[in-house]
Amino acid sequence: MKLLAVGASYRTAPVATLEQLAVAPADLTRILDRLVAQPYVSEAVLVSTCNRVEVYAAVSGFHGGLGDICAVLAEQAGTPPAALAKHLYVHYDAAAVDHVFRVAAGLDSMVVGESQILGQLRDAYHWTTGADSAGRLLHELMQQALRVGKRAHAETNIDRAGQSVVTAALDLAAGHLDGDLSGRPAMVVGAGAMGALGVATLSRLGAGPLTVTNRGADRAVRLAESYGASAVPMAELVDALSTVDIVVAATAATEPVLTLDVVTRALAGRDADRGPLVLLDLAVPRDVEPGVAELPGVEVIDIGRMAALLAGGPAAADATEVTRIVTGEVETFLSWLRGADVAPTVAALRGRADDVVSAELRRLAQRRPDLDDDQRAEVARTVHRVVQRLLHQPTVRVRQLAAEPGGDQYAALLRELFDLQVPQTSPVDTVPDVVGNADGRPSFDVVDVPSTGGER
Predict the structure, then answer these.
(1) How far is CA 43 from CA 65, 342, 362, in A?
(2) Given 58, 264, 314, 452, which is the most exposed site by the fewest CB atoms within 10 A?
(3) Cα separation of 336 and 139, whole Å?
């Protein structure tokens, strides 16, 4: 079984494409079910955030697994696979493990080092467990990824530069408001995890008074009470907008909440000398209708704009140290994986030995009917003991060798020498040359796929 990581992020896709791919919480189980129902996909984890939509999967073949995952993502996006493929990246086996661990450590985030992704990965794993779409391989991968993320933040200063996306967005917003949010009236639209982070960050920066609104009024009230803010019904959104200078929009709505009509009416009731209304759109799909950015007196900062403005990362020493941690943890995981891969071969070898011993004992019983039960039992114990002693050292050693780079060759050699049949879950194809397909199938941005040899 092999690992694939297939996805699109702020690095490879525009916000509009991420909006198409985004999976609402209510649809996560359905998409996971669709993934594991595909012929080549046996396990799947789906991560859907404002910055990325990724699938981590255990597959039996590269070609088949990639095609299956792309088909499901294209179906979710409502676009042909060929059109979606140019925005997708693909990581295979060791590169897939490296990618997942880098994501967990915050090295692949828009704001490098931010820790919010850990919570998002934990949520994705929770959904996967509930949908029963992960097996031994992805359970181990996700548990180790979460541990790697925690280790990166505990052992380095990546947090120093790894501010949250909300903090980074508010830093950008401050530039439009004389560089200081202190005392600025602000509102948060949405009371989920991102909305709660928005309220907490605004409160810490001294913005206020703070207002919270949400489609579910109870959640807005609870969140507001936690920070001494006030909650307003969504029906009063226009009036509330007219009294604030900054808005953090982070709902899970499938359609824009801050529409052109809503913002236009809010501006009409706003004092002319208040300065710009700054809207931070941290939602995917977007909460702010695209036309709003063209209105005079409004500044819209969305995910796409943040990606351009937040180029760069933490101090080089911090990033280097986190990369070192990730590299070591990837090798540890691969060692475990290689050891797990050789186990069926070792079991098959011992099974073959047991079959040979049983056949010889049956033959002995036919040739020496004069042996009594005790004698036959003693012969059986002796033969089994000899075989076990002969196999012990080679099987221990092959497990040790399998944990080293290239260790899968030893298992393959055992299978060849003893003609062992180790069952495969489904046919395995070879790694493709994915630079274009004459038959019209989409090409993909395949990262670090092994260029020699085929899948085993």
Answers:
(1) 11, 20, 43
(2) 452
(3) 13
